[in-house]
Amino acid sequence: ILVTVLFRPQKVCLCPFLPLHPLHISTHLYIIQHPAEESKVLRTVPLLAACLPQDKCKVKIGRRFSEERDPELSAVCRRSGTLILYPGDEAANLEEFILDSPVYPSTIIIIDGTWSQAKDIFYKNSLFRLPKQVQLKTSISSQYVIRTQPTNRCLSTLECAAVALSILEKNNDIQETLLRPLQALCSFQLQHGAQIRLSKEYLLKNGLYPKPMPKNKRKLRKMELLMNSVKI
Fold this sequence. Notes:
By secondary structure, the protein is an alpha/beta fold. The protein has helices spanning 45-51, 71-78, 94-100, 115-123, 157-168, 172-191, 200-205, 217-227, and strands spanning 2-4, 11-13, 28-33, 57-61, 82-85, 92-93, 107-112, 132-135.
């Protein structure tokens, strides 16, 4: 898999860090990708897809989805064995949920985009309220250090998939295998001019945020919540 990078080496081959064969998994993964992610150079979904069988990892690009526009996705959302990974007060912890679920999950949906883009997709598509909503309870910090995250606890799409699949497949090796190309990508970029991007939460708490505080009251409130480590 080749990653093209502006102002740095034009192509970087990460093939040596991919598994020799796609990982053998029983779980179906659906990535709902915001269209803006397509133009991002250092995105993680291509790395994730390169590690998994094509019939087990499908990427759907768009902002709005309905039964008329995507009957396949509609059918997936209506199945009892489908989960959607999105944090919130109504979300169950994935590890705890599978212990008590009468139907073992066969499919998981993950939204790919910035947090504001993911929120827009989740709340403005009624289809995504049909599957059981789950979240990850993990203490790991993101290794995707070349892209700014809102908080220290935020994970990239690939990292979320790696943790979720390792839980659903009951195989911790999956997480290690999926993270390997991401680690290589970040390491190579840091060696060739990229800078470690600290989270907005860290920058705000330590007085390092480079931009003026927003005048918009809603945005200002979000900044205050980040500074106080409140989930937003």
